[in-house]
Amino acid sequence: MTRVERWEERAEWPLTAAAVLFLASYALPIAFPTASATTRTLCSVVVWTTWAIFALDYGVRLTLAERRWWFVRHNALDLAVVALPVLRPLRLVRLLALLSILNRTGARELRGKVVAYAVGGTVLILVVATLAITDAERGHRGATITDVGDGFWWAISTMATVGYGDVVPVTVTGRLVAACLMLAGIGLLGLITATLASWLVERVDEVTEVEQAATRAQVDALAAEVRALRLSLADARGALPDTEQRSGTPDSAD
Q1: pLDDT at 155
Q2: Cα–Cα dist 148/132, whole Å
Q3: Weakest mean pLDDT among 103-112, 114-123, 169-178, 237-246
Q4: What is the DSSP letter of 167?
Q5: Do 132 and 89 form a contact (C-beta atoms < 8 A)?
Q6: What are φ and ψ of residue 178, in 5° steps?
Q7: pTM score over 0.85
Q8: Using CA atoms, how far apart are residues 168 and 142, in angstroms rounded to an integer?
Q9: C-alpha closest to that of 9 among 51, 61, 45, 47
C-alpha cells in the first residue's frame, strides 16, 4: 500500500463527514431563506471550513504522491471538488462502496455496484441541482424558479430530458447548471439502459444454458440406453449355441 492509499484510508470517513456537513450548510439557507443572520453565518463558516478540509486533503495527497503530474491527471474530480464547492456532496456517492448492506445485495458484482452508484449519484445530483438552481435564480427579474419546490420540479424534468418549459433558468449561472444537469441526465440514462440490457442478455443466456443442459442430459441418457441394448444383444448372442447363431445362413444341402 502506497503512502497516498494509506492517507486516503485514514481520511475517508472524516472527508465523508465534511461532505455531509457541507451539504447541510449549503442547503439550509437556500431551503429556508428566512433563516436568521446567525444561522447564515454559521452555515457560511461550515462551508468555508469544509472547503479548507478538502483543499488540505488534496494538498497532502499531492505531496505524498510519487508521480505528481500523474496524480493531477488521474484525480481531476478531486481537484474540481476543491475548485467548485457545489460538487463536494458528490463525494457521498463513495459511501455506497462502504455500506456493508450492499455487499449482501450483490454489490460485489460489477452490475450491482453500477446500479448502486447510479441510484446514489442520481439522488445526489438532483439534490445539488435543485439547490444550485434555486440559489442562482431566486430574486432575479423574470425568474420562474423561486423556491426549492420549483427547483426540484425543474431538476427532475431536466434530468429526465423531458423539458416541459414551464420553469426555465434566466441567469447565466442557472443555464450553466442546466447544461451540466442535461449531460448528467443523458449519461445516467445511458448507464441505466446499458445495465438493463446487460441483465436481460444474462437472463436469456441462463435460460439457453439450462435448455442446452437438459438437451445434453437427454442425449446422454439415450446414448446410455443404446449402449445397454448393445451389451444385452451381445450377451444374448454369446449365450446361444453356435448352430443357432448360424441359423440365419443358408444350408449347404439345400
Answers
A1: 92
A2: 10
A3: 103-112
A4: S
A5: no
A6: -65, -45
A7: no
A8: 10
A9: 61
Q: Within 10 Å of residue 210's Cβ, how many Cβ atoms?
A: 10
CA distance 99 to 52: 27
Place of cell 442478455: 201
The contacts of residue 191 (CB under 8 Å, 6+ apart) are 114, 118
CB atoms within 10 A of CB 77: 10
Q: How far is CA 112 from CA 16, 17, 123, in A?
A: 22, 25, 17
Give the chain's largest Cα–Cα span: 129
Helix (H, G, I), strand (E, B) or coil at 155: helix
By three-state DSSP, how is residue 69 classified?
A: helix
Which residue has 440490457 as its cell numbers?
197
Q: Which of 50-59, 143-152, 214-223 has the highest mean pLDDT?
A: 143-152
**Cβ-based neighbours of 129, under 8 Å, separated by 6 or more:** 151, 155, 158, 159, 177, 180, 181
pLDDT in tens, 33-83: 888 999 999 998 998 898 888 889 889 989 998 888 888 888 877 777 777
Label residue 104 by pLDDT band (50, 70, 90): very low
Give Cβ neighbours of residue 73 (< 8 Å, ≥ 6 apart): none
Q: Please tell me the distance from the alpha carbon of residue 147 to that of residue 131, in angstroms, as a whole number.
A: 9
Residues 46/100, Cβ–Cβ less than 8 Å? no
CA angle at residue 117 from 180 to 6, to 5 degrees?
105
Q: Summarize pLDDT for 191-205 with one digit per residue, the tens.
A: 777 777 777 777 666
**Interatomic CA distance for residues 72 and 67, integer angstroms:** 9
Residue indicated by cell numbers 443466456: 205
